[in-house]
Amino acid sequence: MSTIFAMALGCGTKNRDEHWLEVFYPDPYLKPDPKLVDVIREEVGYEGGNAALELTHRQVQHLAREWRDAGFEHEASYAVAFQESEQPLVLTILETDAEPASTPEAYLKLHLLSHRLVKPNGVVLSGIFPLLPNVAWTNEGAIDLNELPERQLLARLNGKLLEVNSVDKFPKMTDYVVPAGVRIADTARVRLGAYVGEGTTVMHEGFINFNAGTEGPGMIEGRISAGVFVGKGSDLGGSSSTMGTLSGGGNIVISLGENCLLGANAGTGIPLGDRCTIEAGLYITSGTKVEVLDENGDVADTVKARDLAGQSDLLFRRNSVNGAVQCQTNKSAIALNEELHKHN
Asked: Known catalytic residue: 291?
């Protein structure tokens, strides 16, 4: 019997054409117990592969009973709760970590990230955008944009206000999961699919995109773009930024190691090792010319920033007299040059 990559039982929202708008999975599983899957094969006729199986309330009732009989009390309790729901129900099974093929599959992968079951870049998300409909996220949940005017009118006629919080493909993470041990000052600035590690504080101007996040602990007052992962103890100062694969970074995976600091209004387009600092207001891209300083503060070499990618203990600054971008390191000029050119 093949191992299942992930699965989850959820409920969601459809539009009038019976197309999924979103799916909520309260307790997704990575590598679920094969015995749990055996019950699914028998009860709903699952025959393998990646699938989003829409279930009737009776099927969910049967699953709850069979899971409880098999000793899966925790899973059964969720199934019991779902069988009382009036919302559409779906059991999504990913036999492999393949490119998602449906909205429920896409939402399951986003949940895996926000539940900290996989880390950014640890799950296949190619082709996800066409599977995430652009919807109105309101105080009454997700609403199809074509149905929004009627819903707004009905609310007004009933003396109510339908509040539209955003119009987007991604909902805010905290409407689906609130990870333990985090502080998020403005929850609208963290999308579902973000990985927010324990001990992370996201201040009001901080932003974490999907498939991005923090190991924690850390202070985030800047932007963590898609695909970027920030290591333990690293801080992003106010309005700082990381270049993601969706914003010009190409195929370069940007990351920050442990105990790094991006100063206010600073940014990076290269991955940083541990204990690196970019001073306030300085944005480093891969092609930035950088003067490498030796232990005496003299220029030992001039390289492109990409040549310093991934190295630790670097301080990037701008010379206040001539404007040159410079890099100080705790390594000697000789040792640094050897490291820069050993793979040439």
From this structure: no
